[in-house]
Amino acid sequence: MGRYILKRLLIAIPVLIGISFISFFLVRLVPGDTVTALLGSNYNEEQALILREKLGLDQPLIVQYGLWMANVLQGDLGYSSFTNQPVATALMERLPITIELTVISVVFALIIAIPLGTYAAVKRNSPMDYGASFFGMFGISVPNFWLGTIMILVFSLHWGILPSGGFVGLAEDLGGNIRSMAMPGIALGTAVGAVVMRMTRSSMLEVVGEEYMKMAKAKGVSQSRWIWKHGLKNALIPVITVVGIQTGYLLGGSVVIEQIFSLPGVGRLALQAIANRDYSLLQGAILLIATTFVIINLIVDILYAYLNPKIRYD
Amino acid sequence: MEDVLLDVKELKTHFKTEKGVVKAVDGISFQVRRGEILGIVGESGCGKSITSQSILRLVGYKRNELVSGQVLFEGEDLLTKKEKNMLAIRGSKIGLIAQDPMTSLNPVYTVGNQIAEVPMIHEKASKKSAWQTAIAMLKKVGIPSAEDRADQYPHQFSGGMRQRGVIGMALAGNPSLLIADEPTTALDVTIQAQVLDLMLKLRDETNAGIIMITHDLGVVAEICDKVAVMYAGKIVEQAPVEELFANPKHPYTKGLLKSLPKLGDKERLQPVEGQPPNLNDLHEGCRFADRCPFVFDKCHTEHPPLFSTDSNHRTACYLYDEEAE
């Protein structure tokens, strides 16, 4: 098991190097640069040159990349060219919010998706199954920004039971925190839940038809043990992959929802960085999102090995 | 008759489908005594496996699955039992050995774990004592270094070993009836022989009754005491094994025996011509009529009942209807 994890970690290194490379150059493909954004309407060639030299933007790209990478490897992500705040600090301020949002969405999704998908498969063609299919279609086809907006209309404007936006820290006020995170969590989690539910259902459908499931019945196991112990552990193997990928997307892709609910997360920070052509901040954000994606994949791989002994013993 | 363990009477298992009712098992009756091995032979799709699943009540829960008749096990009808009571019988009093050892063990649990589950469910055994049972079962079915093997997963076992594991699982509840659904089909010949020997040995040790479902007449000849030949959902012939091989009556049984290769025989094999009938589109007559070389008018209008040709030999063929002669 230790060797397996080590192998996965080693594979992650070239992936991260590749991502750093792409994020660095991709950011610079956007028309305009930090300097044009900083100077805005006061732009003139002379000032621009001075500023470029100061920020090190006058050097060849490859040298800039080398310098940036050398700093990154020492844990220094540079400074935001707009706020002069260290990039690492800016990201770390925002990251907990994005993580909390992700965790809430995923937990919400799993609580609905796993039992619903499992029952839908076991009670195939029952009203429960049709209900599950409806939820699956609904969750996948409804865009989260629409759902978020509708929820604000209903719960904030009409009933006034939940705040329409803004963030309350977990440490400050637990109740307020939950109230501020509930709607964005559900808005994001619905689509994830739909995808995971469909995967659970189809995977479980396959599993219940397996010979070992018939054998388990012939052994005299009760229905609940049959489903949850014999069936689900097998069915979860492909589900875990989907959950991992979805979680990865949530960590980087909740930009729109963070914007709608005015949550100061990483996604919103990245959006501001793009608008400001804030290279170091944007690179830092992309690198952070990519790294969390890689870490989540690593966790998925480890869970995979836990669930599937064939992988563990390879 | 006290030692009759299982008495199946007029068992019918029908499936309603869009294309009509599939009569997978259509009124079969047979008995198994303690310590006796009954072979049920027939080609694929003749209803052998559905018979075993009907006895264990693994079919019959969906609206389109209709099971009727009587399955008297130790004097009690299983078909009228509550599901809760069936749970206590499956795996404990009746053990099932499934066809394909490659797929009949759960890939995510160790073999020992899966065997230990049986005493844990049925005897409320502690984890530790259940594990001891698992190891004892693996030893019983001849798996070397059972202590280590119990801790391994199915994919670390070879095919023959897996089948031994499955047999161990079926035996863990100390059943009085074992249903072996083609237990050797997926194994190669030397392993087949070992598994059959094992089953004989277990029969002698536990005096359990065994239903051996197979399409392989070689297996039947080797271990069964009596045989029921199934064709298209019906039993067409029933006899003690020597009697059946020496003196087959039903044209289908005769055809089956002729299609068996014999060592050193240069004669061409004679297959049974034609295909078995479609089970959702059966006529009233004998189901073998369309393939039978001896067919006559009556065969097409009414299915023959079982005629006794001997005290313990019965066949469903009008050729043996003595009253008619």
Automatic annotation (TrEMBL), chain A:
One GO CC term, this protein: plasma membrane
Family matches, as Gene3D superfamilies: MetI-like (1.10.3720.10)
One Pfam family matching this protein: BPD_transp_1_N
Coiled-coil ranges per UniProt: none
UniProt xrefs under InterPro entries: BPD_transp_1_N, MetI-like, MetI-like_sf
UniProt cross-references to CDD domains, sorted A to Z: TM_PBP2 (cd06261)
Membrane topology: Multi-pass membrane protein
Stretches that traverse the bilayer: 9-30, 101-122, 134-161, 181-197, 235-261, 281-307
Subcellular location: Cell membrane
UniProt keywords, alphabetically: Cell membrane, Membrane, Transmembrane, Transmembrane helix, Transport
Taxonomy, superkingdom: Bacteria
DNA damage as UniProt keyword: no
Major subcellular location class: membrane
Domain ABC transmembrane type-1: 95-304
Biological process annotations from GO: transmembrane transport
PANTHER family: DIPEPTIDE TRANSPORT SYSTEM PERMEASE PROTEIN DPPB-RELATED
UniProt family annotation: Belongs to the binding-protein-dependent transport system permease family.
Name the UniProt record assigns to this protein: ABC transporter permease
From TrEMBL, chain B:
A GO biological process held by the record: peptide transport
Membrane topology: Peripheral membrane protein
Keywords, alphabetical: ATP-binding, Cell membrane, Membrane, Nucleotide-binding, Transport
Gene Ontology cellular component terms for the protein in this record: plasma membrane
SMART domains attached to this UniProt entry: AAA
One MF annotation (Gene Ontology) recorded for this entry: ATP binding
Domain ABC transporter: 6-257
Family to which the UniProt record says this protein belongs: Belongs to the ABC transporter superfamily.
InterPro entries: AAA+_ATPase, ABC_Ni/Peptide_Import, ABC_transporter-like_ATP-bd, Oligopep_ABC_C, P-loop_NTPase
Location of the protein in the cell: Cell membrane
Matches recorded under Pfam families: ABC_tran (PF00005), oligo_HPY (PF08352)
This protein's name: ABC transporter ATP-binding protein
